[in-house]
Design goal:
23% helix, P-loop_NTPase, ATP binding, alpha+beta, ABC_transporter-like_ATP-bd, ATP hydrolysis activity, three-stranded antiparallel sheet, Rossmann fold, ABC transporter domain-containing protein, single chain
């Protein structure tokens, strides 16, 4: 069974109620709210992240596990500021990745992919 755009929109609305206060974001290492990332066109989207919420407390170690193509690398690239979400928000160490003064990407966050074949993506 495949889902159409209306089905995806209805599922996304279910996640819109989870809010993230500035205080909560500043206390976390990573705070992701309502992350939505797609490739392709609006008429023919390939949705990678759909309503993802994730919080990683400071001092924690997290691993992302999942099947090939499920969005792990895309999420990490958004967290370190190499890619942008289509909608939603990401905060890393109290700042928005890619914003002036956030240090992300840059000196505040290190990122080393497991597979060296992804190295070209982060060196662009």
């Amino acid at each position: 069974m495949t889902e159409g755009p209306a089905d995806l929109e209805m599922r996304r609305r279910q996640f819109m109620t989870q809010q993230s206060t500035l205080q909560v974001r500043k206390q976390q290492a990573v705070c992701v709210r309502r992350a939505y990332k797609r490739y392709g066109t609006k008429a023919n989207p390939y949705v990678i992240l759909d309503g993802l919420n994730m919080t990683v407390p400071k001092g924690s170690i997290y691993g992302l596990l999942g099947a090939s193509g499920c969005g792990k690398t895309t999420l990490l690239n958004c967290i370190v500021g190499r890619k942008r979400l289509n909608s939603g928000e990401i905060w890393v160490l109290g700042g928005t990745p890619g914003s002036r003064g956030s240090g992300v990407p840059g000196p505040r966050v290190g990122y080393m992919p497991q597979d060296i074949s992804n190295l070209e993506q982060i060196q662009e």
